[in-house]
Amino acid sequence: MALGVSVLLIGIPTTVSAYEQVGNACWYGPRLHGRITANGERFNQNKLTAAHQSLPFGTKARVTNLDNKKSVRVTINDRGPHVGNCAIDVSRAAARRLGMTESGIVRVKIEAATK
């Protein structure tokens, strides 16, 4: 019986750690739509993606607008932001879900599980 339990536990990742950051979010869209992102895929402003300075490509992150509590789950596929005092740059689609397309910059909490 103990052998069966050990076999089941072998495939469970043990290096996953929680990542949390509070900072500003910016968004990017039409001007960069179709350009190649840092991970090699084409940027699509209509997908739920984001640029972050250090989170690994492919990381799923929950971004929460601290003003209105709206949140969205994005996939990190680019590096940045490269402007202003922002911690994350979200796609236009993500910005819509966060309710930030008009203001352009909002205070957010970024939560992710990293390996």
Low-pLDDT regions: 1-10
Proportion of beta-strand residues:
35-45%
Share of helix, binned: 10-25%
**Strand tally, please?**
6
- Major sheet summary line: 6 strands, mixed, barrel
Structural class: mainly beta
From the structure provided, what is the oligomeric state, counting identical versus distinct chains? single chain
Radius of gyration: 16 Å
Overall residue-averaged pLDDT value: 87
Distance between the termini: 30 Å
Task: Give me the strand/helix succession.
Answer: HEEEEEHE
Instruction: Give the overall silhouette.
Output: globular
Number of helices: 2
- The largest beta-sheet arranges its strands as 1-5-2-4-3-6
Describe what this molecule looks like in 3D.
- The protein has 115 residues and is mainly beta.
- Helix content is 14%, strand content 37%.
- It contains 2 helices and 6 strands.
- It has a 6-stranded mixed barrel with strand order 1-5-2-4-3-6.
- The longest helix has 9 residues, at 2-10.
- The two termini are 30 Å apart.
Provide a concise account of the structure shown.
This protein has 115 residues and is mainly beta. It has helices spanning 2-10, 92-98; strands at 17-28, 49-52, 60-65, 71-78, 88-91, 106-114. The chain is built from two helices and six strands, in the order H-E-E-E-E-E-H-E.
Which features would summarize this protein structure in a list?
6-stranded mixed barrel, disordered N terminus, 6 strands, mainly beta, 2 helices
